[in-house]
UniProtKB/TrEMBL annotation, chain A:
It comes from the Eukaryota. Residues 53-99 form the RING-type domain. It is found in: Cytoplasm; Nucleus. One of its GO terms (biological process) is intracellular signal transduction. Catalytic component of multiple cullin-5-RING E3 ubiquitin-protein ligase complexes (ECS complexes, also named CRL5 complexes) composed of CUL5, Elongin BC (ELOB and ELOC), RNF7/RBX2 and a variable SOCS box domain-containing protein as substrate-specific recognition component. Also interacts (with lower preference) with CUL1, CUL2, CUL3, CUL4A and CUL4B; additional evidence is however required to confirm this result in vivo. Interacts with UBE2F. Interacts with CSNK2B, the interaction is not affected by phosphorylation by CK2. Pathway: Protein modification; protein ubiquitination. The keyword Zinc applies. Keywords: Acetylation, Cytoplasm, Metal-binding, Nucleus, Transferase, Ubl conjugation pathway, Zinc, Zinc-finger. InterPro entries: RING-box_E3_Ubiquitin_Ligase, Znf_RING, Znf_RING/FYVE/PHD, Znf_RING_H2. It comes from Thrips palmi (Melon thrips). This is RING-box protein 2. It is an enzyme of class 2 (transferase).
TrEMBL record, chain B:
Coiled coil: none annotated. Residues 29-182 form the UBC core domain. SUPFAM superfamilies: UBC-like (SSF54495). GO terms for molecular function: ATP binding; NEDD8 conjugating enzyme activity. Pfam families: UQ_con (PF00179). It comes from Thrips palmi (Melon thrips). Keywords: ATP-binding, Nucleotide-binding, Transferase, Ubl conjugation pathway. It is an enzyme of class 2 (transferase). The keyword Nucleotide-binding applies. This is E2 NEDD8-conjugating enzyme. It catalyses: [E1 NEDD8-activating enzyme]-S-[NEDD8 protein]-yl-L-cysteine + [E2 NEDD8-conjugating enzyme]-L-cysteine = [E1 NEDD8-activating enzyme]-L-cysteine + [E2 NEDD8-conjugating enzyme]-S-[NEDD8-protein]-yl-L-cysteine.
Length: 109, 183
């Protein structure tokens, strides 16, 4: 009996495939993302620049503040919430991160 | 601190419902910043420092105790009161030294000359909203060692004595420590 089986196995192919140790049954893909900005957290209120700043979060009752709270980029490429930065430049017109004179490069989301 | 966190939590749950009454007044930006900062400060406190809150609901009233282990003031215990104003973090905290001492940068009345506590400064050393309470604590602690500065004195007599006679300066510092800052 055993001899017969062996001979029939060999007949399947010239190079018998070794038995697989693992079989992939299921897989999950994981992706990461981050905002394409140099600093994604506002160094003044320590909230992500894409979220509403701490002040707007504290003051907004209806959630409308979230749309109005925009990001501002300086010529130095540092970004902050516009609300946070406009309060600070009243006292000292410099970027709090690099101490360069503050001038706005662009604003928006 | 725990109560403040609870207050914050309560506020967020209430905000979806009807308008909040004065009873649960909104938490200021200062208080929100402090909840995070105080925790961070306590984790990174220098060994020579100790902080205390007389009222755990008022994180803006901080008592700091510095017990230097080296330098002229070693062996003394110095108390500071840090008051974090409503304008924080656009404005630096107000700090007073509660212990009488003989120091070139701290007056006998308790006023303190520390660059990062200056609101308006043309150099990069003054206050900036990127600074935190822990920086203030480290600064005050360093006034007894690294930041001790005889070139920018608040107590002119202390500096003059130091420049004239270092041993007499050391003696006077010791006398003050024995009289006012005993551990």
């Amino acid at each position: 009996m055993a001899d017969e089986e062996n001979s029939s196995d060999r007949a399947d192919g010239d190079t018998p495939k070794p038995e697989k140790m693992f079989t992939l049954k299921k897989w999950n893909a994981v992706a990461m993302w981050s905002w394409d900005v140099e600093c994604d957290t506002c160094a003044i209120c320590r909230v992500q620049v894409m979220d509403a700043c701490l002040r707007c979060q504290a003051e907004s009752k209806t959630g409308s503040g979230k749309q109005d709270c925009v990001v501002v980029w300086g010529e130095c490429n540092h970004s902050f919430h516009y609300c946070c930065m406009s309060l600070w430049v009243k006292q000292n017109n410099r970027c709090p991160l690099c101490q360069q004179e503050w001038s706005i490069q662009r604003m928006g989301k | 601190m725990i109560t403040l966190t609870r207050k914050l939590k309560k506020e967020t749950t209430v905000s979806n419902g009807p308008p909040i009454t004065d009873a649960s007044k909104r938490v200021s930006v200062r208080d929100r910043l402090l909840v995070k900062e105080v925790q961070e400060m306590e984790q990174t406190l220098p060994g020579t420092c100790h902080v205390n809150f007389e009222n755990p609901n008022e994180l803006f009233n901080i008592t700091l105790t510095v017990s230097p282990d080296e330098g002229y003031w070693a062996g003394g215990t110095f108390h500071f009161h840090i008051y974090v104003t409503e304008d924080y973090n656009m404005a630096p905290p107000e700090v007073k030294c509660l212990t009488k001492l003989w120091h070139p940068n701290i007056s006998e009345e308790g006023d303190i000359c520390l660059s990062l506590l200056r609101q308006n400064s043309i150099d990069s050393l003054g206050w900036a909203p990127t600074r935190r309470i822990k920086d203030v604590v480290w600064g005050l602690n360093s006034l007894f060692t690294d930041l001790l500065n005889f070139d920018d004195p608040l107590n002119l007599q202390a500096t003059e004595l130091y420049l004239k006679d270092k041993e007499a300066f050391r003696q006077k510092v010791n006398d003050y420590v024995k009289q006012y800052a005993k551990r």
